[in-house]
Design brief:
two-stranded antiparallel ribbon, alpha+beta, five-stranded mixed sheet, Alpha-Beta Plaits, 131 residues
Length: 131
């Protein structure tokens, strides 16, 4: 049963149709990546990650980097970030996984299957890099 009526131009109008029948909402990977990066940055001991050229880090610390894959309603994410020294790495990465999962699911309605976290550097509290 269709709820569409024909408008003046002969095009269908959807007044009265249930919201689920009005169209589709697609949430792209870039949007999920931005949500995940913001969520990871909300964890207290997380700092941005440095850019890399041919695997070699250069420049100043930037934002948390995220690569996300969206397949239907399933999301996987790879997060790369620096951690402020001397925070416990295992605990910080656990918090990042939990926060990214929570925020992505809350804001997109998609299920987060996995969040991989790579610690790219340790940063002293004064932002000097720790080797």
């Amino acid at each position: 049963m269709s709820h569409a009526a024909t408008g003046a131009a002969g095009l269908p109008t959807f007044r009265g149709a249930p919201p689920g029948e009005r169209g589709r909402t697609r949430i792209g990977e870039t949007v999920v990546e931005k949500i995940a990066a913001a969520a990871a940055g909300e964890v207290a001991a997380v700092a941005g990650s440095r850019r890399r050229v041919l695997g070699v880090p250069y420049g100043q610390l930037g934002q948390v980097r995220v690569r996300a894959t969206v397949r239907g309603s399933l999301v996987t994410a790879e997060v790369a970030a620096a951690v402020i020294y001397p925070a416990p790495l295992r605990e910080v990465t656990r918090q990042v996984r939990a926060r990214v999962t929570e925020r992505v699911q809350e804001l997109t309605g998609k299920h987060v299957g996995a969040v991989s976290v790579t610690v790219t550097a340790l940063v002293a509290g004064g932002s000097a890099r720790v080797e």
